[in-house]
Specification:
Largest sheet: 5 strands, antiparallel
Distance between the termini: 11 Å
Order of helices and strands: HHHHHHHHHHHHHHEEEEHEHHHHHHHHH
Helix content: 40-55%
Shape: globular
Strand content: 5-15%
Mean pLDDT: 90
Low-confidence stretches: 1-5, 540-553
Number of helices: 24
Strand order of the largest sheet: 4-3-2-1-5
Number of strands: 5
Amino acid sequence: MAHQSRPIEPSELRRSLRQQLDQSEDHLDLVDALRDIVQQFGPAGGPLASLAASDPDPKLRKHAQFLLLAGVQAEQVPQDVQTALRRQARPVLEKAIRDPLLEDGEKMALGTIYMTAGGTLPPQEYEKCFKDFAGTLRQLMQTAVDNLSDEPPELDQALKSISVLRPENEAPPALKDLEKAMAMSAGFAEKAPAAAAAMACTVAAIAVERGMPVDSFLPPLEHLVAYPHPRAAWYLDELGRFPAGGLVASQAAQVAQRMRDAGAAPHISLLSEFSRGYVSMIDGMGSRSVTLFFRTPKGGLDALVLILNDHLGMRDAWCAFEDASQVEQAIQDPATELVYAPCTPQLARELVGDTWAIHEHDQRPLPGRFLAIRSYLGPQAITPRRHTPNLGAYMLELMVPSEKLVQQSRKLMDYEPYSGLWFSSEAAYAFLRSHLKGRSRRLKKPQMEQFLKEVAILEREEMLSRMAANLEVESLAGRATQAINQNAAQTYLALQQNVVPWEKVPYIQGLAEVGVARMAENIRNGYADQNQANQASMAMDGDLTDLLGEMFGGWNTP
């Protein structure tokens, strides 16, 4: 996107920044505020840098600094806007850093922005710009340590500041990066034991997740034992329970126990309070989302988002802090094909426990970053146990098993929670590659019967499990009495008890027809299996999301 350059009246830009502060001084989303400025004035990197360096109002000066820092590093800022901001701001910032009349504290703040924006002053030359570089740096570090917290938003920011949590478009941290971050985190233990433990444990969990050698992570964990604290012990205890944690988990559990012995029993509580939650239906690939919202002390809204899969376990875990309105809007979007139901923290814990059991069974680590936001699910240990859906609302025990239960089951193909459970195993793809001819998307009747009896039936237990999960979601949403869900419950019972031969159930026939058509299309497009097709679909969805982001609510510039 090309940006037009036009003269910017400093007083006009200053007035806009002043209005932002006056309207939202207690809670201001920096990326949204920067977007407003860019839409009014273009990137305006130079004028923003001038205000950041020399405006007489300390609050406005600090606001301009925060806007610039967000602009040159935040992943939500479009790349072309970020590039323009960096290019325009650097010369102004460098001139300010070299100004002998500017105070060292202000220079340090501007220097951080300058370096983040790609500034390249040699270290010795940079230090000579300060009256007391070492003293200013010590004061800055002390302030940072004094403000360290293990509350999830602050912990997330701290982990980003030491390059442990990085944007998806950046390379993940290497072993040497994590070792450096680990040593730095543990070094904060004397002043901020809870935050130090939270940071160190998360760094160690990320190293375990990535299959790195962990010997170098054990001494920093051992160092924490000298600073017992209930919240520090909680993080160590959780890391000690993480599946496939190996030496790191064993060391963390030992340090947690020694903290217990010193009188620091593991415990944690949050400043944020649970507000509401949602659980989605499970899709044909076995994935679902769990989203919990929490009111913050500042009056904002945090969102914990977990992506769970009944084969692979926890696929992702992340948070939106202070302003999670867009997350909730996506859930409530009437255009979405996903179906949601209310979710309590207890149900979320059970579903995470189900996932945890999968990781323990397969001896695969959980995502390391999950530890940094695990506290949203409460202080009690999560029990690794497979979840059994609660279908009590359907009163299956009162249904009389008979063929009548499946007579209307074809109608389930009209409702997403059931129509999406079609068959797509590797065996199904292999069968179609052997039997479909030309560009056909349908099997002949004898071949379809063979497919149902010999191939689709291999996915019977998996399909029934996902069907039960979605019946539970519909029940949680208060829709158990609806005709479509009564039909689904009857069909589920008939399939579970083999009342009717599998291949004779209209619903199963419908799933097979849809599955064959979709798999045939995927095969024609060159995909070997459903995983490949899903990855391609996700890439296309991502491109579409980017396009819509530019068209609606994007960064329109003058």
